[in-house]
Amino acid sequence: MILRILLLVLFLNIITSYAAVDSETYVVHMDKAKIKALDASLGTSKRWYEAIIESITISSSEGEDQDQSSLPKLLYVYENVVSGFSVKLSEKHVQSIKKVDGFLSVIKDELFVLHTTHSPRFLGLQEGIGLWDHRNLASDVIIGVIDTGIWPEHPSFGGSGLSPVPSHWNGKCQVGTKFAASKCNRKLIGAGAFFKGYEAIAGRINETVDYRSPRDSQGHGTHTASTAGGNLVKGASFLGLAKGSAAGMRYTARIAAYKACYQFGCASSDMLAAIEQAVNDGVDVLSLSLGGASKPFYIDNLAIGAFGAIQNGILVSFSAGNSGPSDSTISNSAPWMMTVAASYMERGFPTKVELGDGQVFLGASLYSGKPTKQLPLVYDEAAGGEDAKFCTKGSLSPRLVKGKIVICERGVNSRVAKGEEVKLAGGAGMILINDENQGEELFVDPHILPATSLGATAAIAIKKYSNFSTNPMAMIAFEGTVYSNPAPIMAAFSSRGPSPIAPDTIKPDITAPGVNILAAWPPNISPTQLNSDKRRIRFNIMSGTSMSCPHISGVAALIKSLHQDWSPAAIKSAIMTTAYTNDSTNSPITDAASISSESATPFAFGSGHIDPEKAADPGLIYDISAEDYIIYLCSLSYNSSQIALFAGGNFSCPSDSDFQPGDLNYTSFAVLFSRKGSNAIVTYKRTLTNVGVPVSSYAVEVNEPKGVSIIVEPKVLDFQKLGEKLSYKVSFVAMGEGVGSTNFSFGSLVWAYQKYCVRSPIAVTWM
Ligand SMILES: *[C@@H]1O[C@H](CO)[C@@H](O)[C@H](O)[C@H]1NC(C)=O
Ligand SMILES: *[C@@H]1O[C@H](CO)[C@@H](O)[C@H](O)[C@H]1NC(C)=O
Ligand SMILES: *[C@@H]1O[C@H](CO)[C@@H](O)[C@H](O)[C@H]1NC(C)=O
Ligand SMILES: *[C@@H]1O[C@H](CO)[C@@H](O)[C@H](O)[C@H]1NC(C)=O
Ligand SMILES: *[C@@H]1O[C@H](CO)[C@@H](O)[C@H](O)[C@H]1NC(C)=O
Ligand SMILES: *[C@@H]1O[C@H](CO)[C@@H](O)[C@H](O)[C@H]1NC(C)=O
Ligand SMILES: CC(=O)N[C@H]1CO[C@H](CO)[C@@H](O)[C@@H]1O
């Protein structure tokens, strides 16, 4: 009953505040070519847009006195990566704006969510060698990170010993709350904060919890920026765990931090402004560890903004999302985006739980103290009232849990908050258990008391023991850091393909370390982010595709400095064709989501796991020009105003073209077949560019997916010089039998010559 009244009140609240505001923020996309022509007569596009707004608001108020100051204010004017503006408008005004000459589309602003040092060695990067050779690191690249801002005083962003700021940098250090211009240096060369869109949606930033400046109040942006390009800092660790040097993938890169994410998320209008600023400032690579639900590219502001960036030669790396392991949970799936999945490294933080009856289970935790004694074990009713099994706030009875180890199930409140509840009630330890859906994937957390996670199988046994033993007991021992787990393993949380928007490409593209990553952290935020946690750290361990994405951004920056003339698609191709798909035991990479330890598929890891040194010298690349992408959009039957969002004006789609979406010169192959029809044939064309050995002869090797036979024509590509392009055709023939009930089958196509292995995964979807 109380709940119903509460819901009703909330509901009414929403309705009334909606009615009171009556207007919402929109991003209005305009035809770049038309606006350019008009600019010449009116001065700047800003004046032109102000005139549009004035005319629609006055015309629609029909003679009522219109006070100048009550006109809707432009939040941003976009002139480079996209063309248009963002503004708060009523529904009526939105209808009038659609009639303005040059109008292309209007997209309601929305909030995106964040996809919340040792990894260099795991990736084979070594000081003084290969990509980390001093000559390669001496050149200048700038990595732009759009996130929650940055903690500028952190040693990962110290500027001493670096050469002057690169001459192609045009940006600045934006001053704001607790952020003086002097906070930028030769490492952190620029910073900006974009919050007009956020404040229009969520209200004014609460300055007791966040800063109206580039300073990071959440830690996420500091962590991701240091993973991509933070300094090499010796002696880093997390409360004694994961000791070693912390270093960004491209640790000599310069960093520009663009803050567009706040307490409740990141507004698309702010994101577009940040992308545009970064492009104008001269960044070489952009890293975005955030996203929203998949939607067609012509209504996806992130896809439209990212396209503007790649047209300016800037590779944009995005996190795939943390919504796995179900199929088609992928975010950020436009083919011009680099979409990054997350996997485990070989590093682990094991624990051992020993029950009173001698059973032993292995778990994981970032708690690093002494083992507990054998202590009484309590669960559910034995620990408190309703919800005691989830250890929610106030659910545990101090009388029942004092001095004992409490079993808590995941869900409802955060994992570290459960530990806090146990500690507040006087408990001595916690065992955090997975249910069947959560399986065996163990999250390690910096608990504030001796605590460990256990997988679903152990959970069943331990619940049974605690229910049926008259005097249940347990102890937890913490075994520190080990470096011997088989790796990589795909993280269950990592979002999966196929992309519902673009099933003609495999997404995600690649996987990189994204579980238990140690990186820089603001000194005023505790590792658990709980108020009761008074510990302060310089480096924190976090997990998510948010953490894997900046690894790829940093590696892209390394490759960019080696091959300054390569396009974003060429760098992407190099990273993808050289990725590996076997783990450290030379068996196919497995999937933490699979109970039967089946191997992971390209819809979990794309082309495989990144191998930076190999990516530096791929032999051949699949290049894609901006025009190639636009022809691809034509093949998706986008109409002229949808095409103009990407092409920036007039683009006539070829009328007699037989180009299909699968002909995009993508590094992987996705094929859709009907389960019933047999002998259906799909033929795709590809073009390879030689960047390896001038005279070289590549031969094709195919590994056919189940139920499909493959014909490649020609079977040998003879290159005579560098930069030469040669094309081939690949036909997939559906045999239509033996596929059974599987929805997908997988294979690969490799062009091999001497040390080079240019590999593309193949994914067939049976519909
Ligand atoms: C658009 O294309 C048409 C026909 O190709 C051409 O006449 C016109 O000048 C173009 N407009 C702009 C603004 O480029
Ligand atoms: C701002 O945040 C603080 C701390 O959470 C809270 O106490 C305060 O009420 C908030 N202020 C507003 C205006 O929401
Ligand atoms: C243990 O008891 C709880 C209720 O207290 C019950 O929900 C659970 O199913 C029992 N588990 C086993 C394995 O018997
Ligand atoms: C990957 O593992 C499979 C199965 O163990 C093996 O057949 C294959 O040769 C391995 N591939 C590479 C590149 O080592
Ligand atoms: C393109 O399609 C959109 C959405 O269906 C529509 O609103 C728009 O008017 C179309 N534009 C043209 C030029 O047909
Ligand atoms: C195949 O797809 C269908 C429909 O999406 C789903 O119900 C089924 O579980 C899938 N099969 C497998 C083996 O994943
Ligand atoms: C830049 C580039 O090489 N683009 C090529 C990609 O492949 C398609 C299909 O083979 C070609 O038409 C493009 O020219």
Automatic annotation (TrEMBL):
EC number(s) reported in the record: 3.4.21.25
Domain Peptidase S8/S53: 139-590
Active-site residues, Swiss-Prot/TrEMBL: D147 (charge relay system), H220 (charge relay system), S546 (charge relay system)
Record key words, sorted: Glycoprotein, Hydrolase, Protease, Serine protease, Signal
Residue stretches making up the Subtilisin-like protease fibronectin type-III domain: 663-764
Coiled-coil annotated residue ranges, if any: none
Residue spans crossing the bilayer: none
GO biological process: proteolysis
Alphabetized PANTHER family for the sequence: PROPROTEIN CONVERTASE SUBTILISIN/KEXIN
Protein name: Cucumisin
UniProt organism field: Handroanthus impetiginosus
